[in-house]
Amino acid sequence: MIAKKIRATAIVKSDYDRNATNYDKVRFGTLGGQYVNKREQEFVASIIKGSRVLELGTATGRFATSLTQRGAKYTGIDLSQNMLRTTSEHTNHSISLVQMDASHLGFRNYFDHVLCIRTFHFLQKPTEALQGMFGSLKPGGECLVTFETDNPLRRLLLFFGIGASEQYYYRTSEVEELFVKAGFRIVRRGPVMRVPVTFYRRCPSSLLWILRRLEKIWPWPMHDYVLGEK
């Protein structure tokens, strides 16, 4: 596991409050960024089929929108009030939003799925967060977490300051251990995206096809997932 200048909760809240208005433009404003969003939406849709869903880290509501359109009863939490406000504005369906720290969840035995996409690696207290996710689920409920990985390519990129962020980078086995410690049974694990998201966001549109082909053969997945069952 690599830890890079993990931000305090108050700083994370301040950063996301400040960046809520340009969040989507920075991440999904290019064709490469839009492709990443499409892949991640398809990935989530392949696992979560309606029902009661709790999302940790709503950001601007991209999953709130897609999940409710497919019939889910959605509850989302985020540290940032501005992100929650934007999520509400982007979603036409009835949803529940709560300003809350993911490491201190206050739900009990209610949800069928807990979802944490591209947020887990920012959490200061991942063990406490997973314990809260476990407690939020009904028996048999599933928890889906994605995270940026620790691998040889990542370490090389970080050495040269490419794609560095203030977060944890995990090996998949480390996240599995955290799941088991929280009480989960591992259902499956694997890659969500192999090529670094930074490459997609900065790639000229004419060369995007190259990255798409590399997804099939890239040896070090950069964005993995673990799915656990209560």
Report on the architecture of this protein.
The chain has 230 residues and is of the alpha/beta class. The chain has one domain (2-51, 104-229): Rossmann fold (3-Layer(aba) Sandwich). The chain has helices spanning 9-19, 23-28, 31-47, 62-69, 81-90, 126-136, 152-159, 172-182, 197-202, 208-214; strands spanning 2-3, 52-56, 73-78, 96-99, 111-116, 137-148, 168-169, 185-193, 223-229. Helix 4 (62-69) links the parallel strand 2 (52-56) and strand 3. Helix 6 (126-136) packs across helix 8. The longest helix has 17 residues, at 31-47. The relative contact order is 0.17. The model has no long low-confidence stretch (mean pLDDT 93).
The total beta strand count reads 9
- The averaged pLDDT comes out at 93
- Under CATH at level 1, the class stands as Alpha Beta
Q: Give the SSE order as H and E letters.
A: EHHHEHEHEEHEHEHEHHE
Main beta-sheet strand count, sense and barrel state: 7 strands, mixed
Which SSEs are present, and which pair or pack?
Layout: E1 2-3, H1 9-19, H2 23-28, H3 31-47, E2 52-56, H4 62-69, E3 73-78, H5 81-90, E4 96-99, E5 111-116, H6 126-136, E6 137-148, H7 152-159, E7 168-169, H8 172-182, E8 185-193, H9 197-202, H10 208-214, E9 223-229
Parallel strand pairs: 2-3, 2-5, 3-4, 5-6
Antiparallel strand pairs: 1-7, 6-9, 8-9
Helix pairs in contact: 6-8
Characterize this entry briefly.
The chain is of the alpha/beta class and 230 residues long. It is built from 10 helices and 9 strands. It has helices at residues 9-19, 23-28, 31-47, 62-69, 81-90, 126-136, 152-159, 172-182, 197-202, 208-214, and strands spanning 2-3, 52-56, 73-78, 96-99, 111-116, 137-148, 168-169, 185-193, 223-229.
